[in-house]
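[job 4471] stage=fold_predict status=RUNNING
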Amino acid sequence: MQEIKCPNCGKVFQVDEAGYAQILQQVRDKEFQRELERRAQEIEQQKKNDLIIAQMEQDKSHREELSGKNRELAEKDRIIEQLQSQIANSKTQNQLAIHQAILAKEQENSAAIIKKQAELTDKDREIEHLKARLEKFVRVKMDDSDNSPGWKFAEYEMKGVPVRVEIGPKDLLGSRV
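[job 4471] inference complete, writing structure tokens
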């Protein structure tokens, strides 16, 4: 038999082997239970800490990924702006080139019109000079209408014109009349 002193009241008890084993089992069960609870709390706390760390790592990874995507978007926006600027410059250059081509063509046309007017003035002068020379000998009627030569021939034949003289632009230039 063994003696056991109560830690609370200080009383001494006599216990046989079976009772001692039973008391020991109860004490051990309580200690074991406390140890299990402590370890469960530690494991639970470790799980919470691990979860917080995993979330922090995931947040960090997500922020880094998001930052990378933002940099890519900023680069793409910069490239888009450059391309839009190039398109605008190209449009401006095309419009300028078209404007210059139109001005050049208008100047060409103006020069051609002035040259044609000068030629017509010269022809009119030559025709008047020729008409004045011929009127000394015959009656002269000049037909400068826009009708075709065939229409003119038929018209003057029906009128009964006995002699018809045709003088063309090449004849006037060569002074062969």
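[job 4471] summary: Helices lie at 17-134, 149-159, 169-174.
[job 4471] exit 0
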